[in-house]
Amino acid sequence: MYLRTQHNSTQTEPQQAAAVVPRVEVFYGDEVESPCDLLPETAFRTDRETRVDRPALRAMYGVSGDELGPNSATVRSRLFSCTAGWPQPPGPADLHEALRAENPTPRQASVIRAWLQEATLVEIMLAWIEDAYSWRVLVRAIHRLGYRDPRLNRYLNQFADPARATSGPCLN
């Protein structure tokens, strides 16, 4: 739910100061946050099929070779902050393993949910640049958990291969 206010602009400034009564409209849903289904994992390229030069992106963002894959610095930083109160806080290797688990344990599901709920879209992209996951691996894990987030779905759908995702919601 969100609110949109609209002020009557035909009044003069003194009249507005004396009696500003905004018109408030309540809308359920938002064009940005409207329901958006995540495309199936097959709509996304595998790591071998990707056309992006990730080593060049890593160089541009200053990512060192020891901060890749299960040692992703971005994942480490985010999980460190959002799971600080856990009895055994997970690290990037835990997320790496959880995303690839066919039947995630409750702890693995919690690690994935913590990442998805707390990571910013920039961090999700940086973790991909750092080879923490491929888009296909991330999407598969999201579908496996039944996780729903229209903002995240819309963001991830833009990385789908257009040849594989010719129809469906939220492609733009």
Distance between the termini: 23 Å
Shape: globular
Find the structural class using helix and strand composition: mainly alpha
Kindly report the oligomeric state of this protein.
Answer: single chain
Number of helices: 8
What does this structure look like?
The protein is mainly alpha-helical and 172 residues long. Helix content is 43%, strand content 6%. The protein has 2 domains: 1-30, no CATH class; 35-157, no CATH class. It has helices at 13-18, 54-61, 73-82, 92-100, 106-118, 121-129, 135-145, 150-157, and strands spanning 2-6, 23-27. A two-stranded antiparallel ribbon has the order 1-2. Helix 3 runs antiparallel to helix 6 (121-129) and helix 4 packs across helix 5. The model is unreliable at 1-9 and 24-32 (pLDDT under 50).
Which key features would you list for this structure?
globular, 2 domains, single chain, mainly alpha, 172 residues, 2 strands
Quick summary:
With 172 residues, the chain is mainly α. The protein has helices at residues 13-18, 54-61, 73-82, 92-100, 106-118, 121-129, 135-145, 150-157; strands at residues 2-6, 23-27.
